[in-house]
Amino acid sequence: MLNIQDLRAGIEEKEILRGINLEIRPGEVHAIMGPNGSGKSTLASVLAGRSDFEVTGGTVEFMGRDLLEMSPEDRAREGLFLAFQYPVEIPGVSTTNFIKTAVNEVRKHRGEEPLDAVAFLKLMKERMKLVQIDQSLLSRSLNEGFSGGEKKRNEIFQMAMLEPKLAILDETDSGLDIDALRIVANGVNQCRGKDNAFLVVTHYQRLLEYIVPDYVHVLYKGRIVRSGTKELALELEEKGYDFIKNELETADQA
Amino acid sequence: MSQTIIDRIAEQQATLPARDGFLAEFTGRSMADFRRMGIPAAKHEEWKYTRVGGLFRPELGFGSGISVTASDIDPHRLPGHEEATELVFVDGRYTPSLSNIRHSEKELAVMPLAEAASGAYADRVRADLGHSAAYHPDGIQALNAAFAGTGLFVMVHKGIRTEHPVYIYSIADSRTGYVFAQPRTLFLVEAAAQVTVAQHYITLGGGESFTNEVFELCAAQDAVVDYVKIQDEGPKANHVGTTHVRQTGRCLTNAVTISLSGRMVRNNLNMVMEAAHGESHMYGLSLLNGETLVDNHTIVDNVQPHCQSNELYKAVLDEASTGVFNGKIFVRKDAQKTNAYQSNKNILIGEKASANTKPQLEIFADDVKCSHGCTVGRLDEEAMFYLRARGLGETSARALLLHAFAVDILDRIGHEPLRRHVDRRVSQRLAFDFEDGQ
Questions:
Q1: Is residue B438 scored above 70 in pLDDT?
Q2: Of B232, B254, B275, which residue constitutes the final position of a domain?
Q3: pLDDT tier at B2, thresholds 50, 70, 90
Q4: What's the pLDDT tens digit per position in A43-68?
Q5: Residue B431: CB atoms within 10 Å
């Protein structure tokens, strides 16, 4: 589904991703962990097509196509979804109308008829339950005045509506209390299936107690330095990121 | 400006009605003022951006007015017109034969200004006509006043709360040549009366026109006035319009000014708050492209204490368009406890677009709250990325954000069918069909 080969990207002169290799197959959940500044959010942004970053090398194949050649909207239409770390507040844009427009853009791309008002409402009601999001929130302007938890729930709600093939969750746990975290994780788990995949970017192991990954990767200084199963996350939690740093430095010296 | 053109204007003016009585004296005096003051040059501070000198060219004509039919107007009628009163100006002349007065005589008095000036409303015309001149001591204002003989008089009677709006269409028929039009209206809203009045400017044919309008409105105690100006003329239309609102009693007046097209557009809007505890709101939206210039000049004159005014003007400037906002607030020495707010927000889309903004506060009282602010920016890149990352194309993401920028002005149009109409026009202009409602 997603195949990243030696991906290098940066901002201006500074290289942040220094050769990422990663393969994600349908049905898998991958977690990317790492200390602050390791390049986790940059990876999420580059995959979603944020133009602030310049890709300087490597390839990314998504559903058999060259992802890096595609506009952000085409990536979304092809089934890539980024749950933002900081969802943008957009006053004057109704959340419901926005989601309806987005859903129908994706449907159009797939050659499907747009959903009519009734069908859309039905789908919305069903998916709202997944993240326990309230109707009143959706009739407000997009993310405007939403609490941190409400914004993250809204992200997962949009994900549930758009049914992406690959969802990238960029520090979705940041700023969430334990109840909100559980609700968000529960929503994600209900969207898991054999045909779709997740890339969960997080600083803490906490989220992974609820969204149990198949693979855990540790990102450090723009490279994946360790890959393993969910036990790796537990080890990181126990020992901190320092043990990885120390290990690497010892290896460098050897 | 050559003497020949002045003489031709004077000749034309002399053919108009109102050859005796107050109106004759008023128009005659105004013609003399026009000759004396002439056309404002670019060095005139108030006319720095709106350069009207070049519009006074030999080929200017006064239009015949007779070639316009009701079916020419049909495509431009505003929503719910079947029940509204529709008043029509053709080439600057109020034209009763094309107008439809659908309110009863108990609700509205509508007649040519010349008839009002010599009949039952003579005293009111004498008292209220020309009040705006003191705020615009220039030749352009005087020129319009000189043509008041073909103007319109409307009165909303005391205590009448009109359900249906009054629509005023100003039509410039450019099919027969370069039109030079001077529409004039005196609109009185009596005590405790309520009305929605909308002005709509239309160009027939693709030719050039120059409309120089003065609309004077007087609102009495406890009146509620919703005024909407929709300026949606042809690409070669030039427009100078003065809307002068005077609160003679404590009342509420709202004005929404929408500018969508034209070559050069000057919107003067005055709110004169002569009674204590008055409230006024002034909103403006300009959506500009090409080389269009829209110059919004507003004046809020606080004469009495405890008045509130609120002003928000927004502009979206594409291509090589220019937006000007000049907001004056006067607080006279007796106008203590005045609250006056002013804000101007601009989004520049075009590389060659520009926004000019100038707040002017002249405060002679010591216990007042006045504020002004201005922003000029580009479209929010972060918001653009968010929308595109959800599958919206660049064009629709941009249109959605611009619509969101415009919507808090559109929401100020209280009359729902009119709001939806303007919203549709704005959405069309943003090349975007965003579904309304749920």
A1: no
A2: B275
A3: low
A4: 999 999 999 999 999 999 999 999 99
A5: 11
Helix (H, G, I), strand (E, B) or coil at B67: coil
The reply to whether residue A91 touches residue B435, judged by beta carbons under 8 angstroms, is no
- For B390, the closest of A76, A91, A141 (CB atoms) is A76
Residue B8: inside a domain, yes or no?
Answer: yes
What whole-number distance in Å separates Cα of residue B47 and Cα of residue B40? 7
B337-358 pLDDT, tens digit each: 999 999 999 999 999 999 999 9
- Asked if this assembly's ipTM is beyond 0.90, the reply is yes
Of the listed ranges A69-73, A89-93, B64-68, B242-246, the one predicted with least confidence: B64-68
A235 to chain B nearest CA, in Å?
Answer: 34
Q: What is the CATH number of the domain that holds A117?
A: 3.40.50.300
For the cut 90, the answer to whether the pLDDT of residue B361 exceeds it is yes
What's the structural domain count of chain A? 1
| 8 Å CB contact between B121 and B155 | yes
Tell me how far apart the alpha carbons of residues A18 and A224 are, in angstroms, rounded to a whole number.
9
* Cα A54 from Cα A14, distance rounded (Å): 10
User: Does B375 contact A at CB distance below 8 Å?
Assistant: no
For chain A, the first-to-last Cα distance in angstroms comes to 37
- Indicate whether B192 and B56 sit together in one domain: yes
B405 close to A (CB below 8 A) = yes
* pLDDT tens, position by position, A166-180: 999 999 988 888 888
Task: Give the distance from residue B10's alpha carbon to the nearest chain A alpha carbon, in angstroms.
Answer: 51
DSSP B187-248: EEE-TT-EEEEEEEEEEESSS-EEEEEEEEEEE-TT-EEEEEEEE---TTEEEEEEEEEEES
Ranges of residues in chain A whose predicted pLDDT is under 50: none
Flag if B389 and A91 touch (Cβ within 8 Å): no
All residues of chain A having their beta carbon less than 8 Å from the beta carbon of residue B390 are 76, 98, 102, 105, 158, 162
Number of structural domains, chain B? 2
What's the whole-number mean pLDDT along residues B362-370?
Answer: 93
Q: Is B319 on the interface with A (CB under 8 A)?
A: no
- Could you say which of B392, B401, B403 has the minimum Cβ distance to residue A102? B392
B100, part of any domain: yes
Q: Is A97 on the interface with B (CB under 8 A)?
A: yes
* Cα distances (angstroms) measured from residue A116 to each of A6, A77, B127: 44, 19, 59
Say yes or no: B387 contacts chain A, CB-CB below 8 A.
yes
Do B320 and B292 touch, CB atoms closer than 8 A?
Answer: no
The whole-number average pLDDT for the span B420-424 is 94
The domain containing residue B113 runs over which residues?
3-275
Contact A167, A193 (CB under 8 A): no
d(CA B31, CA B12): 11
pTM for this predicted structure:
0.88
Give the range of the structural domain holding residue A36, as residue numbers without chain letter: 2-253
> Could you tell me if B271 and B130 lie in one domain?
yes
